[in-house]
């Protein structure tokens, strides 16, 4: 029987602050050992975050479903043999009184999805360090770059596709939605904790990001429509040793300067009358084609 369960009966309880008083941007900049925090949902995603090396600070549960969610979390931990930095029997576990659920839901949290967990963020490597690790561990690496992809659900879906379809790492510009935002990690089904990724400062990316990737041995494939655009199944792409696939904003797409500096512009062949897919759907098609049959 766990002895570290703390029952919450007052919505003003300071233990709820990280769950109820801070928005995503405030959590990102929260000065907890100068790292920032993030919130995840469901026992499965909590376990994946722990397994990826993120340090949990607390777990928040709905009291009436507490045993169900704790059992599910323990099962996930045992199934994956997760090494937990803060053991489950030492971690603060807050059980929310049923009468407070309505107030919490008004803040955007629906505990019917399961447990919530508050975690410390990890430090991310810079672009060169990140790519060098990928280069050293993968044969004919394929990475994705998300440029100004602002919808968190799309970011999460892209990560899920990348993890499932052979992409070795993801680089995301800081003017995109954060992969650790709650909606992103939920849409990714926890794969933001599975696939390697890092941030690149947006200004740095637009000034010299593609040049830096070229220096690191990559050719660049920008998903865009131009006269010289080639299909994603073009044999030239399969022959590229190191390939970076760049996806852009859901509306305007990639910046012209990004396209100009790229080695290829690529498209998904489509039926007449349709000229584009949602960026998340397009990423799945591109990753499937470009992540397979590497020569």
Automatic annotation (TrEMBL):
<dbReference type="GO" id="GO:0006396">
    <property type="term" value="P:RNA processing"/>
</dbReference>
<feature type="domain" description="tRNA/rRNA methyltransferase SpoU type">
    <location>
        <begin position="143"/>
        <end position="287"/>
    </location>
</feature>
<dbReference type="InterPro" id="IPR051259">
    <property type="entry name" value="rRNA_Methyltransferase"/>
</dbReference>
<dbReference type="Pfam" id="PF00588">
    <property type="entry name" value="SpoU_methylase"/>
</dbReference>
<keyword id="KW-0808">Transferase</keyword>
<dbReference type="GO" id="GO:0008173">
    <property type="term" value="F:RNA methyltransferase activity"/>
</dbReference>
<protein>
    <submittedName>
        <fullName>tRNA rRNA methyltransferase (SpoU)</fullName>
    </submittedName>
</protein>
<keyword id="KW-0489">Methyltransferase</keyword>
<dbReference type="InterPro" id="IPR001537">
    <property type="entry name" value="SpoU_MeTrfase"/>
</dbReference>
<dbReference type="GO" id="GO:0003723">
    <property type="term" value="F:RNA binding"/>
</dbReference>
<dbReference type="InterPro" id="IPR029028">
    <property type="entry name" value="Alpha/beta_knot_MTases"/>
</dbReference>
<dbReference type="InterPro" id="IPR029064">
    <property type="entry name" value="Ribosomal_eL30-like_sf"/>
</dbReference>
<dbReference type="InterPro" id="IPR029026">
    <property type="entry name" value="tRNA_m1G_MTases_N"/>
</dbReference>
<dbReference type="GO" id="GO:0032259">
    <property type="term" value="P:methylation"/>
</dbReference>
């Amino acid at each position: 029987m766990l002895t570290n369960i703390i029952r919450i009966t007052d919505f003003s309880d300071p233990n709820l602050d990280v769950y109820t008083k801070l928005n995503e941007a405030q959590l990102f900049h929260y000065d907890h050992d100068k790292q920032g925090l993030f919130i995840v949902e469901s026992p499965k995603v909590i376990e994946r975050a722990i397994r990826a090396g993120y340090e949990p600070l607390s777990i928040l549960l709905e009291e009436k479903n507490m045993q169900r969610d704790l059992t599910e979390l323990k099962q996930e931990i045992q199934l994956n043999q997760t090494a937990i930095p803060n053991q489950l029997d030492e971690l603060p576990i807050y059980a929310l009184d049923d009468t407070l659920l309505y107030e919490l839901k008004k803040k955007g949290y629906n505990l019917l999805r399961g447990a919530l967990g508050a975690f410390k963020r990890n430090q991310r490597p810079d672009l060169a360090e990140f790519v060098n690790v990928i280069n050293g561990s993968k044969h004919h690496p394929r990475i994705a770059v998300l440029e100004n992809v602002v919808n968190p659900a799309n970011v999460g879906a892209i990560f899920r596709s990348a993890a499932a379809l052979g992409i070795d790492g993801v680089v995301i510009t800081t003017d995109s939605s954060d992969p650790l935002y709650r909606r992103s990690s939920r849409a990714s089904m926890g794969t933001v904790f599975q696939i390697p990724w890092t941030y690149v400062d947006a200004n740095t990316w637009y000034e010299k990001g593609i040049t830096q990737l070229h220096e690191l041995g990559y050719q660049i494939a920008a998903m865009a429509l131009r006269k010289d655009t080639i299909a994603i199944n073009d044999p030239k792409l399969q022959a590229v040793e190191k390939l970076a696939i760049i996806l852009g904003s859901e509306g305007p797409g990639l910046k012209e300067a990004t396209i100009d500096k790229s080695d290829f512009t690529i498209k998904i062949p489509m039926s007449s009358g349709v000229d584009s897919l949602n960026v998340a759907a397009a990423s799945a098609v591109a990753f499937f084609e470009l992540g397979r049959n590497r020569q």
